[in-house]
């Protein structure tokens, strides 16, 4: 950690900062430059404590050298996190396609969906029973009934199922019915939910918040891991910017950086990023090319009848097309689809 | 609602859209222009259903005419929402100063804080017992013990107390101990929490999410109101932008628009927006001038000892200065402090 | 164009808007809904004139149906723009790699650079003689002397050369020495420069402004085309967002949309987007996969000695690696490298 | 400057960085921490040279301690810049209102405008002869003819006149006809224009670019000052964010910071920020309260007839109202209007 003092800081104020540092067991090494005094600080500073020194009036800035995440960092755990669920493996260099409808709507719809996914070689089906909706007047999902239908579809068709949890109180029951749980973008910093996710055993897909920095994203993963669950899959799903031509700006640069920074698998959600089905195939291909471990896409048996997000849902035949087009990209980057 | 079709849409596809609209009891009125066919739609469309029509391939865009919020809208409820708690009134044209430390730390600290606030004429003290922290390794708040200390300080000193709730399971107990509950920026779209907030009787301060649009902000308020609690106070606290010279960009233009759009009181948090105590006074003055109903600021008996956010906490004498400087502004805009 | 009136607009005000519309030769068709009157307007409205109606007090919003660009739009010119310079063709389905150092520094450096590019099969070398620098104290480029060295290198080695122009007064001389001119991101809305670019005959690479919407980007291209030069190549180079882990957020979703919206070729600059050489290869691969017509990357004979942007410049052997890795991706998407 | 090396950097690579630093006359002081080696660098580093060290592979980050601007900085020139034009003084603690129509349209319109401004006590009238327009098909301003009409109006009515210059070639003639020149937001980093602005003698209003950081804004001012003209007035006019409820997000926090960082006067443009006349009065009041030295607002004799930006232009009677409402705020903050 480095502490930059304001210009013309008095001797006694420098001493005060040094005292404060020593109180916290830091070892201060001050440098008096021509225009600024800078205090180099030796000691472990992975938590938020550096920020405390900003509260001293003569401090201009506090600069951290160490990254605030540790468990999620490749620097400390160089071995890749490989996640196994049944015979599916994520993070070992394969390319995983997770696909399914936005929501569980009816028994018929979800079983039909499972069959379509299975027929296309998809091994994990996504579908939400709890729906985060901007409007209180919109369809809020089938709830626990939806979880049960999802499980039923998974069992009947023979496909793993993945679903979102929003409410801490629903974590245990969701973990009972689904194979993978998802933390949605709006809940990426719902810290109590992250802690609950650390207590279950199934893998967690953690979606990046709409305005979360990469650092905050990794800190959210750190919460889950620190609470006991190492099986975290990061999911880039678009960030909020000034552009309005699409729903969110898919940040594939983040994927490239995450692959350098963390040992956790990284997947991409091109459906929620774009909000438009015609962008899903090109963005999926770019995701594979940039180095992602997989994608999660929305596919609905009949998108026009979808109760939510139909505009971004692929038609079943488009899923087939996606798989066909993405295969040679995966091959080009040395991944097995 | 207006549906814009893609160029060169075929007759049968236009018919298909019209059929879909009629199925949902909308009355379509198509216009064939030179370059686009546009379908004007008559009917009530306050929920998210317009988005469903985007799932039809020949639809280029769906434009909503009505605003999606109703209960929070001045258009439908022209009378100001005035919130009374004991002898404090918010939203009646006065200017309310809510102040206090970031967190409840110790009994001594919170009682000392309450005395400082009271001595400066502040009638509501803020302080968090549950802390949303980016890092799992940082101080997470005293929890229920903190709630009790807060209540004790409020009772002993004679000041109302306000605190944040993050976990749905804590809402009932927090409502028991505090006079006003707060939904933090990170939880603005934690819809389950919003619904729980709708079930309690005390007023709710709803902070704008860091990347929430004004529309989404009002929709979050709509959730609380629709769930049964009309006593919502909106709080602008800075949005996330590209600028890094301060923590967040305080959006006072949003305050001006909210005062036009909604009957709910609107307050401003200049402390969290800026992250720097030297900006709090000028931003507080700007907040009063732009038309806000109040401010919520951080003040700590000894900012250098604060366990969280000391850099943005005012010294007690700065609170006195703030009150002194803001008074003539309030007078200039016709508000009583 | 659709004009939405404020709630409870009076009859005479509606008439006033209708009169205004008729004055401008528009044909107004009003609809009185339950909550809003909406005026559907028939007529050509490609310029900014719709905005004028916003100045009328009873107007809540003006919604445009037609896109404001025409010459740049695929809707009006469905045939791809194919750009030929010597034996190089851009926009015909091939994948074009433009590469070179950030700046022309010395004769030796630029000739050495040209040889490296040529040896790697690159047919167009980039290098700036005029440098837009944030600081007036930084290296500002060699100016006209740099243009001459660039031409010399191109001629000696047998490679096309591309360079940036910032000042309208330099357009003619730059067009004399370079084969392709570039409008930098900071000048995307320097309309006088765009007009001058319309007067020269060589192809123009137009970089997207750091905070330009896709619509504004296409309008900037429209300026060049409307001024007489159809040979415009669009270049996505990252947009400014809240993320600070890299320099700019590369917006590959914009590339996917541009390929749908416009007949102009679209290339990507992963070097300036990321600011980090280790991200250039994965982002180049993603650019090819998403459907770009090419990339423009920085390569320097000795990056550590570069006078500008060394951190994002590839080492010569990394260019070889890039070409090697990108080839199978190009093949996978049916493009020839 | 501080250079942070990547974890596990080898001894010889540390030596290499040290050598590089010495070559540039910097004095390196390395610290080997547990997880990172950090090199503290003594020496003057105000230009962009620190960035060069990022090009070395073992360098993780380069952190600057000194701010890159010097002439614009209060740290180096603590005395306020006070700008005098005739009997008008800006930056001495008064509050200056600059007002006028968006554009010079006709002789009648601009003379009528000048009379309205004068009648309201306004001493500087704004109006553009050169118009930066997103669309090439929109009104582009009257050009030099407009400059002449503006001068005529100023002389006849007895009011100072201010106007925008976009093209470097127009700077001399504009300086001949106008009393104050303006660099528009889109040209804030048109460095050749900034240099030309440094060569004239009249004051320059420099508008902040839509996505410019405060640092970049001050560096643009530095360009003008370094080129010879110290009379720079900074103008905050809204930044581009995700919010679409208004045109741009007015950043009054930037005003508060600029008043701390620089000796230059700072004014605010609430008209272009909001794009809506109903927001201009509250935002003007907030600007005065936050500490700005003035505002620049659009007022048109007949907004509905304005050729550009009528929606944000005040009616003449609204200017009177604005002056009336802003006066007590100015008094409250100790400024004379």
Which key features would you list for this structure?
elongated, alpha/beta, Alpha-Beta Plaits, 4-stranded antiparallel beta sheet, 2 domains, homotetramer, TIM Barrel, 11 helices, 337 residues, 8-stranded parallel β-barrel
How would you characterize this protein structure?
4 copies of one chain form a homotetramer. By secondary structure, chain A is α/β, with parallel strands linked by helices. Chain A has 2 domains: 2-63, 2-Layer Sandwich (Alpha-Beta Plaits), CATH 3.30.70.1140; 83-332, TIM Barrel, CATH 3.20.20. Chain A contains 11 helices and 14 strands. Chain A has helices spanning 11-23, 49-52, 107-119, 144-157, 171-177, 191-197, 214-226, 252-261, 270-274, 277-290, 316-332, and strands at 2-5, 27-32, 37-42, 59-63, 83-85, 88-90, 96-100, 124-126, 160-164, 180-183, 204-207, 232-236, 266-268, 294-298. In chain A, α3 runs parallel beside α4 (144-157), α6 crosses α7 (214-226) and α10 runs parallel beside α11. Chain A is elongated.
């Amino acid at each position: 950690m480095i502490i930059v003092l304001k210009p013309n800081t008095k001797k006694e104020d420098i001493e005060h900062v040094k005292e404060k540092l020593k109180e916290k067991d830091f070892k201060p090494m001050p440098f008096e430059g021509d225009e600024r005094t800078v205090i180099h600080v030796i000691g472990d500073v992975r938590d938020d404590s550096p920020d405390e020194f900003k509260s001293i009036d003569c401090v201009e800035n506090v600069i951290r050298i160490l990254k605030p995440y540790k468990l999620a960092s490749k620097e400390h755990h160089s071995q890749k996190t490989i996640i196994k669920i049944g015979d599916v493996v994520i993070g070992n260099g394969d390319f995983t396609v997770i696909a399914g409808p936005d929501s569980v709507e009816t028994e018929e719809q979800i079983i039909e969906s499972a069959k379509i996914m299975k027929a296309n070689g998809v091994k994990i089906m996504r579908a939400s029973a709890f729906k985060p909706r901007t409007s209180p007047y919109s369809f809020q999902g089938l709830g626990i009934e939806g979880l049960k239908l999802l499980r039923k579809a998974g069992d009947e068709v023979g496909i793993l199922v993945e679903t979102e949890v929003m409410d801490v109180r629903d974590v245990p029951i969701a973990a009972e019915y689904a194979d993978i749980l998802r933390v949605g973008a709006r809940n990426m910093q719902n810290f109590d939910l992250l802690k609950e996710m650390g207590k279950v055993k199934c893998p967690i897909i953690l979606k990046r918040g709409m305005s979360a920095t990469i650092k905050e994203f990794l800190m959210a993963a750190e919460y889950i891991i620190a609470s006991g669950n190492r099986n975290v899959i990061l999911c880039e799903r678009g960030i909020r910017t000034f552009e309005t031509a699409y729903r969110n700006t898919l940040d594939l640069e983040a994927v490239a950086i995450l692959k350098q920074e963390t040992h956790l698998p990284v997947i991409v959600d091109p459906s929620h990023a774009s909000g438009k089905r015609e962008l899903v195939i090109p963005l999926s291909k770019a995701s594979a090319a940039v180095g992602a471990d997989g994608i999660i896409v929305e596919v609905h048996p009949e998108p026009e009848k979808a109760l939510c997000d139909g505009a971004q849902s692929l038609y079943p035949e488009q899923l087939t097309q996606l798989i066909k087009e993405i295969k040679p990209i995966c091959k080009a980057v040395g991944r097995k689809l």
